[in-house]
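Protein Record: Sequence and Backbone Structure Tokens
======================================================
Scope: a single protein chain, as residues and as a discrete description of its fold.
Tokens: labelled as protein backbone structure tokens, with as many entries as the chain has residues.
Position: the record begins directly beneath this header, with no further notes in between.
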Amino acid sequence: MIPIRDHNPSERTPYVTITLIVLNVAIFLWGLAFAQTDQALGQLYYDYAMIPLRLSNGENYPALVTSIFLHGGFMHLAGNMLFLWIFGDNMEDEMGHIPFLVFYLACGVLASLAQFGTDPLSAVPTIGASGAIAGVMGAYLLLFPKARVDIFIFFIIFFRIIPIPAWIMLGLWFALQLFNGFNVDSSGGGVAYWAHAGGFIIGFLGALPLWLKRGGKGFWVRTEGHPPHPETVYKRSNVPLVRR
């Protein structure tokens, strides 16, 4: 279940979101050029990734920020940037450019600390924008719970794009992070599920002042949980149907 777009157009150019995407891609390409050997890659992660053991030793606090801009592979990068593009522009629209940037970085740092709290002595590097983007998703859920999100479903030979309310897609995503956080051992590497779950909760709570400023429950009543402007209408897909 992969989100590919939402029906919630931004009313201003999302300069910060675009800049973050360009910056993440540029740093990833730089990393590919720099880390040509295992030793170079290890040094890159040692210097810029969030390593809980180093934080516990009082070292390398800037890594809480730099780790947000590192990615472990093309699919890691592509998935994160897709989620950022879908949900980031609307939150930037609501918050404003600079407040959104501060919010994004704060979610990323606090999400990394959430992962750190689960195993402060771990020597496994934590990298990626997932925690920061999870915060954006949490804020999106609070403000636009019924905004329609088109998801791509692929199961063996069955594939289809269907629109569902944001609260279903984001709620399932969050539940999956919690489930895996409790049931998957990431001590040897893998996905930082607690950074995802922590970032999501932090983003939801961090957006509460904005939600209250918009009217709180009154905002939901006025918009019925939908975006407070006309939704995007996409043309029907031109993919041909194959009859049985």
In short: The two ends are 24 Å apart (CA to CA). The chain is about 60% helix and 10% strand.
